[in-house]
Amino acid sequence: MTTPLKPFTEEQLTSLNDEHLAKIFLESLSSYENKERLFGLLDMLHHYRRFASRLTSEKRRVANNNEADKIFDEVQEQVNTFLYTKGCRMPVRPIPVNRAYLRAKYGTNTGAYDCLLGKIFYADDSTIDELPEILGHEFTHYIQALSGMFSQTTTLFQEGCARGVERQIAELNAKRFDPQEYNTSFLRRHIDEIENTLDIHRRYQEWFSPSLPHTWPFMKHDLGNALFYLAEAKHGKRIYADVLRGDFSSILG
Ligand SMILES: [Zn+2]
């Protein structure tokens, strides 16, 4: 599969704001006829329908503190091992994880990494099914902060990277357990974000209209996810270790 990404220069990546980065990415998508196929959307929908109908009520149960701690230990191990085997050898100190009501403070109902407090939070109603990906995502933001990536890149780029690592966790768990246990909450979110990206592309001018500023924060996850999805398809899973080591060349072209 080829990627529609036009090369970003180092200067663009560090100096362009998210809006410009998004515009360049959306323009590059225009040259592709079948964008659904480019993103494997039909396959994802097929998997989602298959697995969603088999999800057990046990997996939909809200995780208690002990279960969440155990899941977080496993996720840290999985993310660290994944990045290490792909060439990112940065030492990662353990970090506290806390249950919290998040919407008021962080505007999210899933998870958050607070770099000022140095803590990861997860929503108090997180289910066993969705916690590995939520914690994998926030743990990636923590590693981004350690690596200095926060100061080198924009939010769209950081969210895309975190979504990509989150996808590795979902795939690892799907392989480790029965494939029927493939994380449907992750798949649903991923499908929604790819569909949003295609919708944003269709409504390109409208989405960048100043009259819709409230939509912009959500686009960063959608477009970042799509950006890294295509870069991974072209260059493989090493892209996450590369960017966390400060090497952006695989995303740049
Ligand atoms: Zn994030």
Describe what this molecule looks like in 3D.
This protein has 253 residues and is mainly alpha-helical. It has one domain (10-252). 62% of the residues lie in helices and 5% in strands. The protein contains 14 helices and three strands. It has a three-stranded mixed β-sheet with strand order 1-3-2, with helices on one face. Strand 2 (111-114) and strand 3 (119-123) form a beta hairpin. The protein is globular. Bound molecules: zinc ion. Residues 137, 141, 159, 162 line the site of zinc ion.
In short:
The chain has 253 residues and is mainly α.
What's the number of extended β-strand segments? 3
What's the SSE pattern? HHHHHEHEEHHHHHHHH
Q: Report the helical percentage.
A: 55-70%
Largest sheet: 3 strands, mixed
Report the radius of gyration as a whole number of Å. 18 Å
Strand content: 5-15%
* Poorly predicted ranges: none
Mean pLDDT level:
84
Approximate shape: globular
Class from helix and strand fractions? mainly alpha
Q: What's the tally of helices? A: 14
Number of domains: 1
Task: List all distinct small molecules, including ions and cofactors, that are bound in this structure.
Answer: zinc ion
**End-to-end distance:** 14 Å
Q: Largest sheet, order of strands side by side? A: 1-3-2
